[in-house]
C-alpha cells in the first residue's frame, strides 16, 4: 500500500516517512501542486494532508483532489480547533482530521481506522486467479495448494497485476505503484522483478499467468 504525505516541513515529513515506512510505501510532496501531480498518476491508500503549504491552501488541495475524482481517504493534520472550520474541512472532502500536536500512536490509529472504513484491505479478503490465491492482509500467496514465498516488491507487483487482471499495465504504472516517487531505479528494474516472479509463480506450474503485453508492459491473464 502507498501513502502520500503532503507536508512542507522537510524534517517533519522525513520523520513521518521513517515512522510509517514499515507499513507503507511512502511518497512525500512538499507543495500542493506536487501532491496533485502525484495523486493524478498513483493510487494511494491514504493521503495525510497538512493545511499550511507554500503554494496553495490545504483546503484547495483537498477540494481539487475530490474534483479530480480521487477517492483515497484524506486525513488532514491541522492546528485548528474551531468546530466550524473543522466542519469546513470535512465539507471540502476530508475524511477525518487530527489536531496538532499529535502522537505517532494516535496518527497510526487514525490511519488504520480510515483503512477499515474504506475497506482498502479486509482480513478475510482473498483474490483468486485460476489456481492461484492471494491473501492481501497476510501477504500470502498459494498456487495449486503450494505456498509461495515472495519478497515485498514481488508481492506488491503481483497484487497490482492481479487487481488489474486482464488489463495490460505499463512499466511506468508498476514503478509508480510499487516504488517511492522520485526514487532512482534501474531502467530494467521492473523486468528483473517480473523474471523473479515468473520463476516462482509460473515456472513450477503447467500454465503461465504473467503475460507480456508487447509494446505495453505486463498483465495477469488466465485465458491460457
CATH superfamily of the largest domain: Response regulator
Structural class by SSE content: alpha/beta
Strand order of the largest sheet: 2-1-3-4-5
Q: What is the CATH class name of the largest domain?
A: Alpha Beta
Helix content: 25-40%
Based on DSSP secondary structure assignment, what is the total number of beta strands?
12
| End-to-end CA span | 29 Å
Task: Determine the number of helices (DSSP H or I, runs of at least 4 residues).
Answer: 8
Structure description:
The structure is a single chain. With 224 residues, the protein is of the alpha/beta class. It folds into two domains: 2-117, Rossmann fold, CATH 3.40.50.2300; 127-220, Winged helix-like DNA-binding domain superfamily/Winged helix DNA-binding domain (Arc Repressor Mutant, subunit A, Orthogonal Bundle). It is 39% helix and 21% strand. It is built from eight helices and twelve strands. The strands form three sheets. Strands 2-1-3-4-5 form a five-stranded parallel β-sheet, sandwiched between helices. A hairpin with a 2-residue loop joins strand 6 and strand 7 (132-135). Helix 2 packs parallel to helix 3 and helix 6 (152-163) packs across helix 8 (189-201).
Amino acid at each position: 500500500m502507498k501513502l502520500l504525505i503532503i507536508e512542507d516541513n522537510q524534517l517533519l515529513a522525513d520523520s513521518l516517512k521513517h515512522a510509517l515506512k514499515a507499513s507503507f510505501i511512502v511518497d512525500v510532496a512538499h507543495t500542493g501542486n506536487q501532491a496533485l501531480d502525484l495523486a493524478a498518476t498513483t493510487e494511494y491508500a491514504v493521503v495525510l494532508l497538512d493545511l499550511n503549504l507554500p503554494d496553495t491552501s490545504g483546503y484547495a488541495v483537498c477540494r481539487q483532489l475530490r474534483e479530480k475524482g480521487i477517492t483515497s481517504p484524506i486525513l488532514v493534520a491541522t492546528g485548528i480547533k474551531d468546530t466550524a472550520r473543522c466542519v469546513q474541512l470535512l465539507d471540502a472532502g476530508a475524511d477525518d482530521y487530527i489536531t496538532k500536536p499529535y502522537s505517532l500512536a494516535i496518527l497510526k490509529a487514525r490511519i488504520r481506522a480510515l483503512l477499515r472504513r474504506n475497506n482498502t484491505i479486509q482480513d478475510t479478503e482473498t483474490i483468486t486467479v485460476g489456481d492461484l490465491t492471494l491473501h492481501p492482509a497476510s501477504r500470502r500467496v498459494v498456487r495449486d495448494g503450494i505456498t509461495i514465498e515472495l519478497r515485498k516488491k514481488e508481492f506488491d507487483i503481483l497484487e497490482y497485476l492481479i487487481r488489474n487482471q486482464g488489463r495490460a499495465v505499463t512499466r511506468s504504472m508498476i514503478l509508480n505503484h510499487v516504488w517511492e516517487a522520485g526514487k532512482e531505479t534501474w531502467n530494467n528494474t521492473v523486468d528483473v522483478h517480473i523474471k523473479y516472479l515468473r520463476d516462482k509463480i509460473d515456472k513450477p506450474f503447467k500454465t503461465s499467468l504473467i503475460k507480456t503485453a508487447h509494446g505495453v508492459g505486463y498483465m495477469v491473464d488466465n485465458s491460457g
